[in-house]
Amino acid sequence: MNRTLIFRWIKVIVLVYSIIGIAFYYLQDSILFHPEPLGSEHNYNFTIPYKEINIPYTAKSTINIIQFQHTGTVNNGVVLYFHGNRNNISWYAKYAPSFTKQGYEVWMIDYPGFGKSTGQFTEQQLYNWGLALYKLARVRYSPDSIIIYGKSLGTGIAAQLASVRDCRQLILETPYYDFQSIAKDWLPFYPLNRMMRFKIPTWQYLPKVDAPIIIFHGTNDGVIGYRNASRLKPFLKVKDLFITIEGGSHNDLFHYPLVTQKLDSLLIR
C-alpha cells in the first residue's frame, strides 16, 4: 500500500469520525430520549383508580403527576416512581399494580416534554422536579412511608433524590453507572465527558443514600449492560442488595418470580 493511499484512508477515517461525533453532539437529546407528548385535554383510561394532578412549576412549565390509589385495606405508604427515557406515564402504568396491591399509592411523574408535562428538559430540572414530587408526598407521608423507585433513566434521578432526602427504601430497576458510560458502549473512542450534556452520575449519589438500596438487573439487558450496572456494586452498603436476574433483559424483569417475590417481601410492613 503506497503512502498516498494510506493518507487517503486516514482522511476518510478522520472525516467519518468527525461526522459521527458532530452528529451525536447535536442530536444527542433525540438519540437518548424518546418522549411522547400528550395534549392537556387527553383523558387517561387506566384500569385502576387514580387521581391526576397538574402543578404549575413556573410560568412556562407544568408538572403532570398521576397518583394511583392503593387497593388494599391499609395504606402502607407511597412509591415515588421515576420512569424511563421513552413514552410517558401511560406506558409505565402497567407496573403500578405491583405496588397498589400491597397497599401503596404510586405517584408517577412525567418529565418535561413527556406526556402532559411541559418545560425545559435539563438534568437539573429532573432533579428539581424529583424534589418537588418528594415535597408533595411529605405533606401526607413521613419518610419511613416513602419508597423511591427508579427504572432505567429514572434510576439516576431516584438515586439523586434519595441522596438528599430520607426515605424507607431506594429501589433501582436496570440502573446505570452514569450517562457517559452508556454512550461509551456505542461510541468508545469519543471524549464523551466533554460532549454529553447529561451526566447523571448514579455512582456519586449511592454512597450518600442512608436508606437500604435494592438493585434489580438482568444479564441480557441490551440497553444498559449488566457490566455497566455492576460497576455500582462498590458503592453499596454492606446490607444493600444487588439482585442479578439470569437471562433478564431491560423491560421484562417483572416476568421473573425472583423479582416479583423479592419486591413483595420488600413492601411488607
CATH architecture of the largest domain: 3-Layer(aba) Sandwich
Distance between the ends: 72 Å
Overall form? globular
Order of helices and strands: HEEEEEHHEHEHEHHHEHEH
Please report which band the strand proportion falls in: under 5%, 5-15%, 15-25%, 25-35%, 35-45% or over 45%: 15-25%
CATH class of the largest domain: Alpha Beta
- Figure out the total of helices: 10
Task: Please name the defining characteristics of this protein.
269 residues; alpha/beta; Rossmann fold; 2 domains; eight-stranded mixed β-sheet; two-stranded parallel ribbon; 10 helices; 10 strands; 36% helix
Question: What does this protein look like?
Answer:
Helices cover 36% and strands 20% of the residues. Helix 4 (123-138) packs across helix 5. Strand 2 (50-58) and strand 3 form a beta hairpin. The protein contains 10 helices and 10 strands. The chain folds into 2 domains: 1-32; 34-267, Rossmann fold (3-Layer(aba) Sandwich). It is of the alpha/beta class and 269 residues long.
